[in-house]
From TrEMBL:
GO molecular function, one term: serine-type endopeptidase activity
InterPro entries the UniProt entry points to: Peptidase_S8/S53_dom, Peptidase_S8/S53_dom_sf, Peptidase_S8/S53_subtilisin, Peptidase_S8_Ser-AS
Protein name: S8 family serine peptidase
PROSITE patterns with a match to the protein in the record: SUBTILASE, SUBTILASE_SER
Family, similarity comment: Belongs to the peptidase S8 family.
Pfam annotation, one family: Peptidase_S8
Ranges where the Peptidase S8/S53 domain occurs: 93-356
This protein's UniProt keywords: Hydrolase, Protease, Serine protease, Signal
Residues in the signal sequence: 1-22
GO terms of biological process kind: proteolysis
């Protein structure tokens, strides 16, 4: 059964900035009635050098409905930005209105408090919802068609929609979406982890949603304790994932959340249900549904900046972008990946926080400074020189790859327009083995850190250098973990070089010490 991963929201009927004196708005914000601006929460500018941030990037949102383009913050969007999967309708809904605003809302007067994160990006909004489909609000044709149209076009595809399955169940739709990610590696797929940490979810409480459980996406948890945003919201998913293979066997566990972003009392555009003329209202929203588009909007800023700098095409690969986002994160109170005294971790990511809290500024600096690589890892180890760094410096490193999964029905299909008119409800999947590689950090030729998370598509290190010296990263391909079972598992996707995105951040000792002191002084986060 599919149930929406929709934000918990508190509706506030408020007027546009121009309808009230600035002093009145500031008083409302001070009293906490106004929510938090996504730009102020992340520290991103809505305008850069006189133009809207994100110009030159392409963003898409896909879910069970489309945004209200009459809202004053979305009115700048062209009417043909809306698309549907085959047979789908396009109902205007509050949820996609709020989500779209977070990404590309544009205040008419440029006020950063009322703009989204990438108001300069090109934007399209798609839906797969089919009237009368009941508990499952889509057909396979409408679902694949809508998402394919987004992946064909966008740098970043966001969905704040999902479902939750029972523990121990094989999650077919996560493999379907992994197949689309693998087919369109130029598109980063950002997904809300789910608002499942409440009693209403019973046995699935805290479980990451089915769509977010895929290997090839970026799964986003929500941070609360605003305005610090240093702990999970009460409803954010946080449990490790059981890796359930197609034949029902449980291979083990891995972290289900990749990173977290602000997601509490965020100011969003409001769209009342049904016909209405209130196109200047806002609401505050809490949950992963708003945290995910925060990450998607920041990813669009990375794409825009890379194009502005004329960087190589490889930086736009989803695996590189994911690595930049994860390596740029800041540590959160209580964060741990289980690393021992020798710097060895078998998890890489924290089960609840993933890599940590989104830091868009750090990811942008890493992009600009060339702290990333696109690697092809074969039988021989790949080594990347990082230069000389001082003892006590903190190194944060992310290595990301895709798990090979394929939908044979897409063979020979050039675009969503070429999809067959009727598709089976559960098309065959070809599930390749789970790739395995280790990430090692060396200083003066000696190992100081190792990540060996066997079932994860992400290897992650965060550690302090024990000595001053020349540092390097070494990536070694290990034996793949086979998958098997009822959906056409195959070895045909094994054996080729593993394409990886690698990114790293070096924090000097004095700054790293300050961050750790802030972490230690924070209250208990979970």
């Amino acid at each position: 059964m599919f149930r929406f991963a929709v934000c918990a929201v508190l509706v506030l009927a408020v007027l546009l900035p121009g309808a009230a004196p600035a002093s009145a708005l500031e008083a409302m914000e001070k009293e906490g009635h106004w929510g938090y601006s996504v730009n102020e929460a992340v520290g991103a500018p809505a305008r850069e050098d006189g133009s809207f941030a994100g110009a030159g990037s392409r963003l898409a949102n896909v879910e069970a409905g489309v945004p209200c383009l009459e809202h004053v913050m979305l009115r700048w969007l062209p009417r043909d930005c809306v698309f549907t999967g085959p047979g789908a309708s396009a109902p205007v809904q509050p949820h996609p209105t709020a989500v779209s605003y977070v990404m590309v809302g544009r205040s008419p007067d440029g006020d950063v408090r009322f703009s989204g994160l990438a108001p300069g990006a090109e934007f399209r909004a798609g839906t797969f919802v089919v009237p009368g489909e009941g508990k499952q609000p889509f057909t396979m044709s409408s679902l694949l068609g809508a998402f394919m149209r987004a992946f064909e076009w966008a740098d970043v595809v966001n969905t704040s929609w999902g479902s939750v399955t029972s523990p121990g169940a094989y999650e077919y739709y996560s493999d379907v979406m992994d197949a689309l990610c693998a087919a369109y590696p130029q598109s980063l797929f950002v997904v809300a982890a789910g608002n499942t940490n409440s009693p209403r979810w019973e046995g699935s409480r805290g479980k990451v949603s089915q769509i977010a459980s895929g290997f090839n996406n970026v799964s986003v948890g929500a941070l609360g304790h605003a305005p610090a945003f240093d702990r999970l919201t009460e409803n954010s998913a946080r449990l490790p994932l059981e890796v359930v293979l197609p034949d029902g066997r449980v291979a083990g566990r891995r972290a289900g959340v990749d990173l977290c972003a602000p997601g509490e009392f965020m100011r969003c555009a409001a769209c009342p249900e049904g016909p209405h003329a209130e196109h200047d209202r806002f609401l505050t929203a809490t949950g992963t549904s708003v945290a995910a588009p925060v990450v998607a909007g920041c990813a669009a800023l990375l794409h825009a900046r890379a194009r502005e700098l004329g960087q190589p095409a490889e930086v736009h690969d989803a695996r590189v972008m994911k690595a930049l986002l994860l390596a740029g994160t800041r540590v959160l109170p209580g964060w741990s990946n289980g690393a021992d005294a020798a710097g060895v971790t078998r998890r890489g990511l924290d089960d609840a926080f993933g890599a940590g809290a989104l830091d868009a500024g750090a990811s942008l600096r890493m992009l600009e400074e060339g702290c990333w690589r696109s690697l092809r890892v074969g039988e021989a180890p790949c080594t990347v020189d990082l230069g000389v760094h001082e003892a006590g410096s903190e190194l944060t490193v992310a290595l990301c790859w895709f798990v090979p999964t394929r939908l044979p029905l897409l063979d020979g299909v050039a675009s969503a327009a070429d999809l067959p008119g009727s598709l089976p409800s559960r098309p065959e999947l070809v599930c390749g083995p789970l790739p395995h590689a280790t990430l090692e950090l060396r200083c003066e030729g000696r190992r100081v850190g190792l990540c060996d998370a066997e079932l994860s598509p992400t290897q992650f290190l965060r550690l302090r250098l024990p000595r001053t010296g020349r540092c390097s990263l070494v990536v070694v391909r290990r034996a793949d973990v086979p998958r098997g079972g009822e959906v056409g598992a195959s070895k045909e996707l094994a054996g080729s070089p593993l394409l990886c995105g690698l990114a790293w951040k070096v924090t000097p000792p004095e700054l790293a010490d300050g961050e750790r002191q802030d972490e230690a002084s924070a209250e208990e986060p979970r």
